[in-house]
Amino acid sequence: MADSSEEQAPVTWLVRHVSASQVVLTDLLRLTDCVPRPFLDAAAAASSTQSSVAARSPTARVLFDFSYLRQSEALDAAVYADQALCDTWDELRETYGDQIARFYQVW
């Protein structure tokens, strides 16, 4: 006959993982309330029906999604070629850099 602790091991493992997952999801939900407005505006502009880069806000033009990983050199060159975009990037980094660093430190 199997030991009762051996029978309970899968249940205990599952309860621990479900509990840990709930903590992660709760933290993510709490952090979404702290996202700075320019980042939300940029996300909304990126998902809008306007596909023209020129029509997007300057903030949206310097905040990239995962496509940045494939096109980092081209996107960096586009930002550094335009002084207004460089200024926007510097302003975002100076204003929100510490807050964004704290988001990364959480994870």
Please describe the structure with a list of short key phrases separated by commas or semicolons.
single chain; 107 residues; mainly alpha; 0% strand; elongated
Structure, explained:
The chain has 107 residues and is mainly α. The protein has two domains: 1-33; 36-106, no CATH class. It contains five helices and no strands.
Uncertain parts = none
Radius of gyration, whole Å: 21 Å
What's the shape? elongated
Q: Assign the structural class, choosing from mainly alpha, mainly beta, alpha/beta, alpha+beta, or little secondary structure.
A: mainly alpha
Oligomer: single chain
Number of strands: 0
For the residues shown, what is the average pLDDT?
Answer: 82
The tally of domains stands at: 2
Largest sheet: none
Beta-strand portion reads under 5%
SSE ordering:
HHHHH
Percent of residues in helices comes to over 70%
Strand-helix topology:
Blueprint: H1 4-32, H2 37-47, H3 58-62, H4 68-81, H5 83-106
Short description:
The chain is mainly alpha-helical and 107 residues long. The protein has 5 helices and no strands.
